[in-house]
Amino acid sequence: MKLFASNTSPFVRKVRVVLREKGAEGLVTEEIVVAREDPPALHAANPLGKIPALILNDGMALFDSPVICEYLDTTLPGPSLLPASGPKRWKVLRLEAAADGILDAGVATIYEGMRPTDERSPAAMLRWRNAIIRSLDFLESELGATFASPDIGLIAVGCALGYLDFRFPDIAWRDTRPALAAHFEALSARRSFKETMPRA
């Protein structure tokens, strides 16, 4: 399999972490691309022109990190990272959705900040920042103090928090969220997170 990737994308990091948690990183080669440069190979794999995109061994392409992560979890051996059904599955998927929403707002803020100053929307950037703050507070109340084995929801949360450290250190999310900080510390000690730290 081949993964279209970058070294800074938190969505790519989710896939990399899942591969390592499944003990399957050796099954995937990576092609580093810059999505904003619109490489034709990426467009052939994902018409949206976004990463990650995963080319399967039969040539089919999957895109969007939740789809790729669920595919890897259900087709590869190793510990299950997403419950098959029931309330636990919906809780995991809700965590993933909140974390991915933080990432969507963060990435949108970064791209907005790349626009010429007179073309930026301060109102939109403030709205995205407020969405991040509310979502962090939601995750703090949702997770509680007990750390369990990582699942796709916790992996997404860890990648979101790591991205905030990387791109938005001024948010200082740890200051009033001890449960989140404890979960992130436990995740960061795992090989899967150590080996996938974002690199500028």
UniProtKB/TrEMBL annotation:
Organism the protein comes from: Parvibaculum sedimenti
Entry keyword set: Transferase
Origin superkingdom: Bacteria
Protein name: Glutathione S-transferase
Residue ranges annotated for the GST N-terminal domain, each copy included: 1-80
Presence of keyword Transcription: no
GO terms for cellular component: cytoplasm
InterPro entries, A to Z: Glutathione-S-Trfase_C_sf, Glutathione_S-Trfase_N, GST_Omega/HSP26, Thioredoxin-like_sf
Entry GO MF terms: transferase activity
Pfam families, per the entry: GST_C_2, GST_N_3
